[in-house]
Amino acid sequence: VPTPQGVFRATYSAAGLAALEFPPKGFAASPRAGGVIPLQVRQWHRITCAAVTAVLAGRVPTRLPPLDLAGGTAFQQSIWRVLRRIPAGRTRSYGEIAKAIGKPNASRAVGGACGANPIPILVPCHRVLAANGKLGGFSGGLDWKRTLLAREGVRWS
DNA sequence: CATCCAGTATATA
DNA sequence: TATATACTGGATG
After folding, report:
1. pLDDT of residue A27
2. Cα radius of gyration (chain A)
């Protein structure tokens, strides 16, 4: 996925987009598994590219490819489901996410699930801040978290 | 204000 | 089995 911020790598399964990786440094070409790329994957990929580009430009994607989140545990999937309901430009705390799944004391475990999110940006783990308004962490690097939030007009302490 | 602690799901050693 | 996390709210000094 080529963007002004670098080249992301998208990985697909039979069910849809399964993973999205930040540009490690900026690998230019399009490394991919050998063999033929199914037509359906190419269609999904077009949507992925448009969506990622939109978010990085501070816009809300009009369409998303099907997301294959089957890889995680039941707990992680429930967290990711909640993340997807956070509207652009809004934030939640780890504790609020924990409450949303009925486990108000699992805020720390929520952090773990966010870190395990295979599809950052499209599954907006960057909209989760610590309860005191600070950033918390980010698997892709805090700079990305700051950039993404700034793009959505979010202010943090 | 600085620490500590329990509670929680996972990963790693 | 133990430790360390992308946490949080309450207790304690």
Report:
1. 55
2. 16
Residue A49 bears catalytic tag: no
3-state secondary structure of A71: coil
How far apart are the C-alpha atoms of A69 and A64, rounded to whole Å? 14
Q: What is the DSSP letter of A58?
A: T
The set of residues, in sequence order, having a beta carbon less than 8 Å from that of A134 and lying 6+ positions away, is: A156, A157
Q: What's the pTM?
A: 0.94
In the structure encoding, which two tokens stand for residue A72, read together?
């995680």
Catalytic residue among A83, A123, A125, A149: A125
Cβ–Cβ < 8 Å for A105, A82: no
Task: Provide, in whole angstroms, the distance separating residue A46's CA from nucleotide C7's C1'.
Answer: 37
Q: How far is the CA of A111 from the C1' of B7 (A)?
A: 14
Nearest to A105 by CA among A116, A115, A114, A97: A97
**Residue A94 CA, nucleotide C9 C1', distance (Å):** 13
Q: Dihedral of CA A138/A141/A144/A149: which sign?
A: positive
What pLDDT digit, counting tens, does each position of A6-59 carry? 999 999 999 999 999 999 864 555 556 668 999 999 999 999 999 999 999 999
